[in-house]
Amino acid sequence: MEITARGLWTLIHGMGFGGLYLLACSGVIVELRRRRTIIPDPQGADHERFLQIYLLLMAALAWLAVLTGTYLIYPWYRAVPPSGTTNLVAFPQRFLMASASTAGWHSIGMEWKEHLAWLVPIATTTAAAVSLQYGRHLRSHLQLRKTVLAFLAVSFFAAGVAGFFGAMLNKNAPVEGGKNIQILEEK
Amino acid sequence: MNTEMNMEVADHSLTETKSGAGGAAALAAGIGSFALAVLAIAADQMPSLRQAMIFSRPTGPLSGVTTCACIIWLTFWIVLHLRWRNRNVAMGRIGLLSVVLLALAVLLTFPPVAELF
């Protein structure tokens, strides 16, 4: 059982950073939605610290996902084949564009994903910063809390779209290459 | 009676913080996101800008578009934070504007919409 180095990085980017972000985001939306009361609870400080660390980790995951996507995987995806190349399997973008039935995955899927995904770390960093700045006082700023919640909801949508297109792009034209890494050996 | 008094004290302490810092963070994020969408469309339409946005050759114009958008976002954040941190702002309007800008960025980055410009 083998995986290529590029395949492994794609896995870390999508299922690692991106997948974990989506899971974490759904959790924090529920938690913030739950906090509608301004009545402080006895464990308030601990809960706030947990939420702040949670949001910071989410922001870190979002940044790791877009930075690995933009500067590591995207260059492999958009690599230009040498002239005369007929087998485009190692050049995912060109491979997709070569057929009318798959061109849309690039022209709509990747073109949207590559920009949309960058809204996620911006929105999540903002949410984390507001949480750090206000702590338990965020409960009393109803409009600000609603704004943070809306930011995280948009961010969840953007990450979901990016994740969906990432998975479909990799299904139709996987980013492969580099060193083969053996995961398990069949006996 | 005691509980009521405690809650009143707690409620009072919760309303002491100013909304300016939060408003600055939210509005800057909205502006930065919107700038990203506008820059992406502009780079797609203008070959000279497209070329200028290539900060990293392997990544292409995406590197410049996202870097510039992040610079715009962080610059607005710092400036607005310094101006608003010690005051209350109309958070309802600023929050709505921020979310609208973010939603517009989502819409404008969608290729069929971006191609209308």
Can you describe what's shown?
The complex is a heterodimer of chains A (187) and B (117). Chain A contains six helices and two strands; from the N terminus they run E-H-H-H-H-H-H-E. With 187 residues, chain A is mainly α. A two-stranded antiparallel ribbon of chain A has the order 1-2. Chain A is elongated and about 65 Å long. Chain B has 117 residues and is mostly helical. Chain B has six helices and no strands. In chain B, helix 2 packs antiparallel against helix 4 (61-84) and helix 2 (20-45) runs parallel beside helix 5 (91-108). The radius of gyration of chain B is 20 Å and the shape is elongated. Chain B starts with a helix and ends with a helix. The model of chain B is unreliable at 3-15 (pLDDT under 50). Chain A binds chain B through residues 38-40, 66, 70-71, 74-75, 78, 107-108, 111-112, 114-116, 118-119, 122-123, 125-126, 129-130, 133-134, 136-141, 143-144, 146-148, 150-151, 154, 157-158, and chain B through 7, 10-11, 14-17, 19, 21-23, 25-26, 28-29, 32-33, 36-37, 40, 56, 58-60, 62-63, 65-66, 69-70, 73, 91-92, 94-95, 98-99, 102-103, 105-106, 109-112, 114.
Query: What's the SSE pattern of chain A?
Result: EHHHHHHE
Biggest sheet of chain B, open or closed, and with what strands and sense? none
Number of DSSP helical runs of chain B: 6
Q: What is the tally of beta strands of chain A?
A: 2
Distance between the termini of chain A: 11 Å
Protein structure class of chain A: mainly alpha
Oligomeric state of the chains present here: heterodimer
User: What are the segments of chain A in which pLDDT stays under 50 over at least 5 consecutive residues?
Assistant: none
Lateral arrangement of strands in the main beta sheet of chain A = 1-2
**What Rg of chain A is obtained from the alpha carbons, in whole angstroms?**
20 Å
Number of distinct beta strands of chain B:
0
Give the end-to-end Cα distance of chain B, rounded to a whole number of Å.
64 Å
